[in-house]
Fold this protein.
Amino acid sequence: MSSITQAIGDFVSNFVAFVLMIILAIVSFFFVVFVVDFGAGLAGYSGDQYVVLSSALLVAAAILAGGISPLSDLSGSTETTRQDATVTADD
């Protein structure tokens, strides 16, 4: 019975994390739209149609960079590189 409650608890925690990530992505998008719009206004650009596009690209790049960086740490790629370096040093 405890494995069922453990599975339900894991599901609920994953769902809460998913919802929180979506909310944070939306908030960061609005913040970046504000910053890009303000910067475009300071630079004298009046083309509002490209503000949302550039903000979307910046937020997508930030989300991807934040997601890729921890994955490379989890994959253990640095350990295999160290092992390869050790093997070549012994040769």
